[in-house]
Amino acid sequence: CSRPQKVCLCPFLPVHPLKVSTCLYIIQHPAEESRVLRTVPLLAACLPPDKCKILVGRRFSEDRYPELATVCRNPNTLILYPGAEATNLEEVAVMSPSPSVMIIIDGTWSQAKDIFYKNSLFRLPKQVQLKTSNSSQYVIRTQPTNTCLSTLECAAVALAIMEKNKSIQETILHPLQALCSFQLQHGAQIHHSKEHLLKNGLYDKPMPKNKRKLRRMELLVNNVKI
């Protein structure tokens, strides 16, 4: 796991990489590389190297990334990104065989949105989303809403659905749970979602002056999906 011995997560990783038929392409915003508590390395440690490929960047052109372009043009490729055009992943899994590739964008919500909309390649695959009411277990990092999940959690749920194996989700979440436990034992605090803080009058930061950001906060408080 490349962590200090005192907080080593290796005992919580699977002894052998999980056997999955779906290959994940993690499109990672460069800012995520410098985060100490990022979850993608834990995800990669749970899967075979050829089933979890990480590409770091903001812009992905067909000329610079021909392999990715080929993947995006494959009719069996899915991209996990919520929105009005996205289909429930469970419906896709029932109607079609397991895809060869699933693309997941790793970054903050604003970073992921920038990557998705400014790279035309990512609008070629079928867009899917997760329908879940579960709260994130990544409690040491603030999420926008109560049901927003980390990249590792999204991958765990998605793989469990596509592989039709619930134990995959449990196995991948195990090191994340251990990571959060270690951090809380060493002084970290539980981070409630921004939605929770706003609704309970606990948000202690200055409200944004930007009208668009302020409107997003109002929607959170009023239970409007954003």
Q: Estimate percent helicity.
A: 25-40%
Q: Please list the strands of the largest sheet in the order they lie side by side.
A: 2-1-5-3-6-4
Taking all Cα atoms into account, the compactness measure Rg is: 18 Å
| CA(first)-CA(last) distance | 35 Å
Average pLDDT = 79
The structural class is: alpha/beta
Q: Structurally, how many domains make up the residues?
A: 2
Largest sheet: 6 strands, parallel
Pfam families: DTW
EC number: 2.5.1.25
Organism: Tyrannus savana
InterPro entries: DTW (IPR005636), DTWD2/TAPT (IPR039262)
Which key features would you list for this structure?
6 strands; 9 helices; single chain; 6-stranded parallel β-sheet; alpha/beta; 37% helix
Word description of this protein:
The chain is of the alpha/beta class and 226 residues long. The chain folds into two domains: 181 residues, no CATH class; 31 residues, no CATH class. The chain contains nine helices and six strands; from the N terminus they run βααβαββαβαβαααα. It has a six-stranded parallel sheet. Helix 6 packs antiparallel against helix 7. The chain is globular and about 45 Å long. 27% of the residues are buried.
Give a summary of the structure in a few sentences.
A 6-stranded parallel β-sheet has the order 2-1-5-3-6-4. With 226 residues, it is α/β, with parallel strands linked by helices.
